[in-house]
Design a protein that fits this description.
Elements lengths: L7 E3 L3 H5 L10 H7 L5 H10 L7 H12 L5 E3 L8 H12 L3 E3 L1 H15 L2 H6 L5 E10 L6 E10 L7 E8 L4 H11 L1 H14 L7 E8 L6 E4 L3 H24 L16 H11 L1
Parallel strand pairs: 2-3, 6-7
Antiparallel strand pairs: 1-4, 4-5, 7-8
Helix pairs in contact: 2-10, 4-6, 9-10
C-alpha cells in the first residue's frame, strides 16, 4: 500500500486515491461536501471507515472517462442486453471484481459515441489533447491555516507551457444546457470542487494564473458538449463552504468527535408551504 508523506503530484489508481494513502488521513473535495449540511461529520466518518460500495449509475461515467481521458478501468462489453441469468450475473460480477466496468452493447456503443463527440468539439478536444497533458493526476498538499492534509484528483493536468494553465474536468450529465449546468453545479457542489482543486494547483505551483473549467456532456444523442467556467460569485461561495468544511474537519480530527445532524434538541417547524397554507386557512 502506497503512503503519501510529502506534498506533490502522484500517479496512482483511483482505488488507492479514494482509500486515502495519507497516514493519519486527508480531506478531499467530495469529503468536504460530505461534512456539510444536508450531510454531517458522522456520515463522512462512516463513509471513510466503510467505503461507499459500488453504484451501477457510476459505470457510464467511468466508461466515458476512460474513453475520453485514455486512463481508467478496463471496459468489458457483455454481449447480452439482459443481465438476469446466473451465467451473465457471474460474468458481470467477475468483471467488477477484477476492477473493470461491464457494459451492455448499447452502453458500450453510447460511450464510444460520446468520446467521438468530445473529439469533434473544438474546445473540449483541445482541452483533452492527448499530447498536451496527463490524465488522472492526484494532488496532495497541506492546508496552511489549519495544518490538515488535503487532496484532489484531477481528470487532466496539462503539461507546463507558456501562458495560463487551464485545467479541465469532465462531467457526464442529463442536461448540458446552461440552465441544467446551473442546477447540477449547485446540486453536486461543483462550485466547491473548482476552488478546492485550484487551491491544490496553486499550493503545488503547477502553473501560472490557473483556471478550472468543466466539460459537461449529455448522455443521450447527439451527446452535446458545453464547456463552462464558474463565475466569481459561485467561486467565492464555494471557497466559503470549503473553509467551513476544513474547519469542521480540523476540529473533528482534534477532538475525535464526529457529530451527527445535531447534538442538541432541535425545534423543527413543518415545511414552509404547509405553514403558509395553514396560516391562509385561519386568516
Amino acid at each position: 500500500m502506497i503512503e503519501i508523506t510529502e506534498p506533490g503530484v502522484y500517479e496512482m489508481d483511483a482505488e488507492t486515491y479514494h482509500a486515502d494513502p495519507v497516514p493519519g488521513g486527508s480531506l478531499s473535495s467530495s469529503g468536504a461536501r460530505k461534512l456539510l449540511s444536508p450531510s454531517c461529520p458522522a456520515l463522512f466518518k462512516y463513509e471513510q471507515d466503510n467505503g461507499q460500495g459500488h453504484k451501477q449509475v457510476w459505470d457510464i461515467g467511468h466508461a466515458a472517462h476512460k474513453l475520453v481521458l485514455g486512463n481508467g478501468p478496463e471496459l468489458v462489453r457483455i454481449d447480452s442486453d439482459e443481465w438476469r441469468t446466473n451465467k451473465i450475473k457471474a460474468e458481470v460480477s467477475e468483471v467488477r471484481e477484477a476492477g473493470g466496468v461491464p457494459l451492455k452493447p448499447a452502453q458500450h456503443d453510447m460511450v464510444t459515441e460520446m468520446a467521438e463527440a468530445i473529439r469533434n468539439h473544438k474546445a473540449a478536444s483541445a482541452l483533452f489533447n492527448p499530447l498536451g497533458g496527463r490524465a488522472e493526476q492526484s494532488l496532495f498538499w497541506q492546508d496552511a491555516a489549519t495544518g490538515i492534509q488535503r487532496r484532489a484528483r484531477l481528470d487532466w493536468l496539462p503539461f507546463p507551457h507558456a501562458g495560463r494553465l487551464i485545467v479541465p474536468d469532465y462531467k457526464t450529465t442529463k442536461d448540458a444546457s446552461p440552465e441544467g449546468i446551473q442546477r447540477a453545479s449547485h446540486q453536486f457542489g461543483y462550485h466547491q470542487q473548482a476552488p478546492w482543486y485550484l487551491d491544490g494547483i496553486t499550493a503545488l505551483d503547477l502553473g501560472p494564473d490557473p483556471a478550472f473549467v468543466f466539460v459537461f456532456q449529455e448522455k443521450t444523442p447527439p451527446y452535446l458538449v458545453t464547456v463552462v467556467e464558474l463565475d466569481v460569485i459561485a467561486m467565492k461561495y464555494g471557497r466559503y463552504l470549503n473553509q467551513q468544511a476544513i474547519d469542521i474537519y480540523a476540529e473533528c480530527m482534534r477532538t475525535g468527535h464526529w457529530p451527527g445532524y445535531s447534538d442538541e434538541i432541535e425545534l423543527i417547524p413543518l415545511p414552509g408551504y404547509i405553514e403558509n397554507r395553514f396560516l391562509q386557512e385561519i386568516s
